[in-house]
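ugh ok fine here u go
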Amino acid sequence: MKIRFSDNPISRRKFFGQASCAAIGVSTLYSSLVNLKAFSAAALANSTTAGDPEYKALVCVFMSGGNDSFNMLMPRSTSEYNEYATTRSNLAIPLNDMLPIFPDAAGGRLFGLHPSMTRSQQLFNEGKMAFISNVGTLVEPTTREQYWQGQVELPLGLYSHSDQGQQWMTGLPNERSATGWGGKVADLINDMNNNPNISMNLSLGGTNIFQTGRETIEFALDPYNGSSGIYGYGDHDEWNVFDRMRTQAINSMVDSEYQNMFQKTYIDVVRRSRDGHLQFQEAIGNVPELQTQFTDNYLSRSFQMAAYSIAAHESLGMKRQIFFIDYGGWDHHDEILNNQSAMLYELDTALGEFADAMAELGLGKQVTTFSLSEFSRTLTSNGNGTDHAWGGNVMVMGEDVIGKRIYGEYPTLALESSMEVGSGVLIPQVSADEYFAELALWFGVSPSELSNIFPTLTNFYQPGANPPIGFLNV
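structure:
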C-alpha cells in the first residue's frame, strides 16, 4: 500500500492560480524556488565516511520560544524536591504527579518527568532516550563570580530569542551568522549522497539557519504532501487548460539551452528543483504504508513525513539525511502549566510514534532525534509563567543513544546556589557546542573538523579518542 497524501479538495489559493494567466511563467518559477530549495552543493572531498556503508539520519526538533525544561526533568529525592518546590512555588509539579524514571549512574538521586511525557518515560527506562542537563550557550567556562564581575566573554545577546536561537542553530555563541552547523556538516560529508537534485538537509519547518551551509541549503517539505512542487505543473487533466499551458511553458524554458551565465545558472536551479520534486514524490509514493499510526496534527505529521523520507533513502540515493522540525510556542510568560502540559503531551506523543516507526523500519540505531531550545526559563515564577533564562535540559532519542542516563550535572534548584545568578537563572555547566559536536561525530564528521564548525569548542573539549559528553556510540 502506498503512502496517502492529503485528500483536501482544491484550495482557494490553487483555484486562483489556475484561473490566472499571470501564474504562468517567471512568477510561478520564482515562488516555487522559495519553497523547494531543491538542489544541494557540489560534494566536498574531505568526508571521513566514504567507506561507511551504514545509513544515518539526524532529526532536530527545535522547541522555539524557550522551553521551561526544569518542569520537564525534575528531582524526586526528598531534599532536592523540597528545594525545587520552594523555588518554583506555584509552578511546581506535585511529587506524586511526576513520572518516575530510573537513570543509571545517578548516585542514588531520584528523578521524574512531566506527567504528560508517558512515552518518554518508557523510552528512557528502556535505554532509548537520555537527557543532557544544564546545557546552554557558552563562549568559555563561566562561574557565578566571573559572570557578576564581567571577567568572561558571555554569549552575544544573552536572553534574546533571536540571538540565542541563532546560536543554538549555528554553534557560534560569540557572533551572528546565517550559516548553521547542520549546513556545515552537510557541506563536509555531502559526497556520501548520490542525488544532486535533493539536499541532504530536509526541512519540515521551512527556511532555517540550522540547515544553511556555505554550499548547502534545505529541501523544504510539507508535512502532509511532501515536496510541494510548482502549482499545476505536470497535471495532465485534459480539462485543465491552464495547468497544461503552465507545464508546457515551464518545460520549454527549462529544456532550452542558454548562453548567458545568469540565465543558465537560474535555469539549472529551476531544473534541479523540478527534477528533485518529481524524484522525491515518486520515491515517497513507492514506500509501503507504515503500520505505525501518527496523530493528525502538524507535529506528528512532520515526524511522519520524516519517517517516509527515511524509508525512501535508498531510492533517493541518500546515505545521510538531516531533518529539521520547528515546534514553536514555548515562550510561556503566562499560563505556563496548562500550555506546557498540552505541548509536552503533543511532543511526547510524536516522539513515541516516530520511535515506533523507526523500529518498524529496522532503523532505530541509525536515526538519532535531538531537541534544541534557545534557553530554559527562570526557576522563579513571574505570577503565572516564567521569563527568559539560560541553562536547561535537552533530550536525545535513538537506539544508538547510551540511554537511561542523565548527562552533565543536574544542578541544585535552590536559589543562591553556586550556578544561580538571580531569579533562578542558571549558568550552563555543559556547553551547547559539546552537545552539537557529539552529534556531528556520530554522523561522521572527523574530529579534526570539529573546531572548524564550532570555533569555541576547544575551550571545553579537545577532540580526541573520547566524545565530548558520551551519550552516543561514536
